[in-house]
Amino acid sequence: MSASDFEMVVGLEVHVQLRTATKAFCSCSTEFGAPPNTNVCPICLALPGSLPVLNARAVELAVRAAHALGCHVNEHSVFARKNYFYPDLPKGYQISQYDRPLAEHGRLTIGHTAGGSPIVVGITRLHMEEDAGKSIHDRYPGWTAIDLNRAGVPLIEIVSEPDMRSPEEASAYLHTLRQMLEYAAVSDVNMEEGSLRVDANISVRPRGESRLGTKTEVKNMNSFSGVERALRAEFERQVAVVERGERVQQQTMLWDGAAGAVRPSRSKEESHDYRYFPEPDLPPLMLTRERIDQIAATLPEMPNARRARFAEQYALATDDIARLTAGPRLAEYFEGVARQHGDAKAAANWVLGEVLAALRSAGTSVRDFRVRPADLAHLLDLIRDGTLSHSAAKRVFEQMVATGDPPAKIAEREGVLQERDVDALAAWVEAVLAEHPAEARRYLAGERKLQGVLVGLVMKKSGGRADPRRVNQLLSERAGAAP
Amino acid sequence: MTGEHPQSAVTAVEAAFRRAAAVGAGADELNLLLWTDRDRALADARALDQRGDRAGALHGVPYVAKDNIATLHLPTTCGSRILEGYVSPYESTAVRRMREAGAVLIGKTNMDEFAMGSSTEHSAYGPARNPLDPSRVPGGSSGGSAAAVAAGIVRIALGSETGGSVRQPAAFCGVVGVKPTYGRVSRYGLVAFASSLDQIGVFGTSVHDAAIALEVIAGRDAFDSTSAEHPVDRYGEAATTSLDGVVIGRPREYFPDSLDRGVAARCERALEALRACGATITDVSLPHTALAIPVYYIIAPAEASSNLARFDGVRYGLRVEGTDGLRAMYRTTRSRGFGAEVTRRVLLGTFVLSAGYYDAYYRKAQEVRTLIARDFRSVFRGGVHALFTPTVPTPAFALGAKAHDPYAMYLSDIFTATANLAGVPAMSVPIGRVDGLPVGGQIIAPHFDEAGMFRVAFALERALGAEAHR
Amino acid sequence: MAVRLDDLRHVMELAHLELPEERTAELLAQLNDILAHMEELRAVDTSGVPPAAGVGDAPLPLRVDEGPSVPLARPLAAFAPATRDGFLLVPRLATHEGVGNDASGDDA
Predict the structure, then answer these.
(1) CB distance C41–B294 less than 8 Å?
(2) Any idea of the CA torsion for A227, A232, A233, A237, to the nearest 10 degrees?
(3) Whether the predicted interface score ipTM is above 0.90
C-alpha cells in the first residue's frame, strides 16, 4: 500500500479570543502588548479569596458566534473547572465548560465539490472559557518567565466533527470559519496576536474503511499554511507507522515549522486527568430563548447574504464579488466607495486593483488604511469628469496612501489637473506636428491610424496634463480641415 | 450596639488588648490570636473618635476576624505555613463592610489550617485552647474567633463555616454563632475551602451582638456571583419574648439514643423554654441526615483539592525550590507548606474527582445532597418555621482526644454539616452547661429567613436567662 | 471500591504532593477508612435525582464589560516569591531545559 491508499481524517479545535474590553471574569483590560503583569488584579492573579464574575459582553459575543455557525444555543449551560498545574494557569484550574456547553450542533459549508454539491463540516460544540497567561522559556537561563496579562481573557473553543479529509479541506474550513467570525464581529481573528489558535486531531485509515484510526493531536501551528503543512507531515508519519505494521500511539505532536516536521510533545510527565467538575463559584448560565433570539438579531449581514446582495445591487462578476466579500471590512470599504461614487464597476476595479496592491505592499489591513472611502470615491469622480487622467490618478492615489490627504488637494499640489484650455492644447498639437513633419504629413493625408501615436506625443509633451479626449478631438478637427 | 458604648473607640480597643493580655490570648497560652497590630488598631480607633459622627452600626466596636478572611494590614495565612507572612493586597467585602460600619479590627484569629478541622488543633501555628477549660479544644475551625468572644476580648468576631466551623466552636465556647443562608454574605475575600459550602459567619456574646454584626456584613455583593439579591432585614429588631404561632420542629434524627445525656437534657430544657414562650413543638423527620457526613466528606475535599491548587509557589506565599525544575518546586512547596490534615483532604478530594471515580463518589454525593436539601424543604413547607437540635453531640473534648482518628473528628460535624449542604441558615446559642462545659442548641430556619431564626434565638436567650451559662 | 497504592501515587502526582514512604502507607489506610464510610451512599436510590448544582436557584449574575479593575494595594513584586523585569519567575519545566521556544500553557 502507498500513501494514496490511505485517507486522512481531521477534526479541528479552534480557540478564538472574543473582542471585549475586559477579561472574562474580572475588569482587567484585554489590551495586547502591555508591559508584563500590568493588566492583572486579585482575580486574574488568583489571589486567595478572589472570585470570578462573568462578563456580559463575552456571553453576547459567544452567543452571536454560535448563531453565525448555525449552532443551537442552550438555555442552560454550566461552567466547569479543568484542573491542571501550569505556572501560567494561576488558579490551578481553567474555567471552561464541559458537559453542558453554551452551544452545539452547528455546521459550516466550506466549499463545493466539482459536481457542485456543498462540502459541509459539522460543528460539535462551542463553549466559553478563559485563556491562560504566557510562559516564556528562552528569556532567562534556567527560568521560565510568566506574564499573566492574557490570563482570563475570554475565549470560545469551537470543536469540529472529524469531517475533513485533506489539508486543503482543513484550510478551507479555517478560512471559512475566520470569515464567519469576522463578519459576526466577535473577534479580531488574528493568529499573530494569538486571537485565533488551532489544534488538529488527525488519524489515518485505509480508503474504504469506515472505522476511525487512533488519532493524535497536533499543536503549535502558527498559521493556516502551517496547519496544512503540519497535517501533511503528520499524515505521512502515521502512514509510515501503519505501513511498518505498527500502531499509531495516541499522543500530542508539536509542529516545528522551521524543520517542517512534527515531533512528540515532551511534556508527558503530566497525566491528562483533568478532574472536571461544575464550577461552584458560578451558578449555571441561564439564557431565555427570547434573549438568545435578541442576540441573534444583532448578527450583522453574513457572507452569503452579502454576496447575493452585491450581485443584485451592483451587477458585478461572481469572482469579483467573492474577492470583495472575503472580509467584512473590505466589503464595507467597497460599498463606501461605490455608494458615493455611483459607478460600482469602477469602484470594484480600484478596490481590487490599486487598494489591495497598496495594502499588500504596506502590509496593513483595511482597518488601518489611510485612504478613506469618501476620498477614493472623489478620486474616481475626478477621473470620470476628465479632471484627472488615469495615469495622473494613480500618482495622486499613491500620495493619498502615503499622506491620507484628499485627492483634489494632492492633484493641485502636484499640478496634475488636466489641461482643458483649447488654446493650450492647440499649441501642444501644433508643436508636435511641427516637430514630426513626416508623421504629420501622412496623418493629414488621411493615414488616420497615426492619430494614436500623435496623441501619445502630445500627452508626453504636456507632461500628462493634456486631456486625451480633447487632444483626439483637436487632431480630428485638424485632419478634417486639412487640404 | 450604638448607645451601649458611650466610651471612645480608643478606650474600647485598649480594653480589648488589656483583656487579651489578661486571659493569655497569645501564642504561649490560649493561642487565640495569630496576628495583631496594636498601633494600627489604635490609630484606626483614634481616627473614628476624631470623626465625630457615630453613624456606623458598630462605631468604635473592636472585633477579630478569622485568619482566612482577607485584610489589608494584617496577614491572612489561613493558619498555614504556605501563606506565612502573606498580607493580602486587597480586602474582603465582609471586612470592608465592618470597617465602614465603624468596627475596629484588632486581630486575626487562630484556626484549623484552611478551615479543615473541628478543634483548631490543625493550625500550623499550634493549637488554640478553650478559655473555659484550657485542657479542652475550643472547637473549630473558627476556634480562635469563638474563644476570643468567650474570653471577653471582643463582643463580636467573624468566622467562616463550611460544615459547622462557626456553630460548633460557638457551642464549645458558650457563645452565639451564626451561619447565614448560603449567598447571604459575600465570600469575596474569604479564602475558599469548599466554595459551594463556605459562608462567612458571626460570633457574638449575645444574640443581639451577632444579629447586628450579620446585618452589617450581609447583602448582595457584585464581586461574588453566588451572593443573593434578597433584602437584608434589621435582625437586631427581631428581639421578642413571644413565639406565639411559631412552630418549631424537633427532628428525631438529631436526638439519637447515643446523644450525650447531659446534652440531651439541656436540649429538652431549651425546648420547654421555647414552649413556654408560646411556640408549638412538633416532632419531624429529616430522613437523610445520617448521610450528611459521607456527602460532606466527598464534596468538601473535592472542591478543596481544586481551590488549594493555587498555592503553588508561583505568585505568593511559600516557595521551596527542589532540585529538578518546576515540578519539584511545586511538590516541595506544597508538601512542606500544607499540614497533615490538609494533605489528607486534598488527596481524598483529588481521588474522588479522578478519572473512573467521579460518578461513584462526586456525582453520587451531589445527588444525595439534593435529597438532604429536599428533607429541609419538605419540613419547612409542611408548616414548620424553624428546627431545634443540639449543635454538637458532646461538649468540648480534650486536646489530642481525636487527633489520631480523622473520621471520629469528622463526626463532630454530624448535626451541623446538613445546613451547609442544604444552604439554610442555622445558629448555635448557649443553652446551659454540663460539668462546667457549655452546650449549644441549634436553630435552623428556611433559606433567607434569618429574621425568623433570630426571633426564636432572642426568645430562647431571654427565657433561659442566666441558666444558659450555668 | 478501595484506594490502591497505585491510585494514591497517581493522586499524589496530580495534586503535586509527596510523602515519605511510611506516611504513604498510613495515609492509604486512613483514606480507605474514610472511603469505607462513604460506601453507605451507594445504597441510596438516587435514580431521577439531579445532582445539586449550586445552592440557590438564582441565575448567574453578569458584569458590564468595563473597568476599572480592583487595584492591588501592594505591587506584585511585593508579595511574589521571584520577579524580574515585571515577569514572575519559576524554575523551568524539566522538559523545557534547552528548549528555546515560547509557548503558552496549552502544552501542559
Answers:
(1) yes
(2) 130
(3) yes
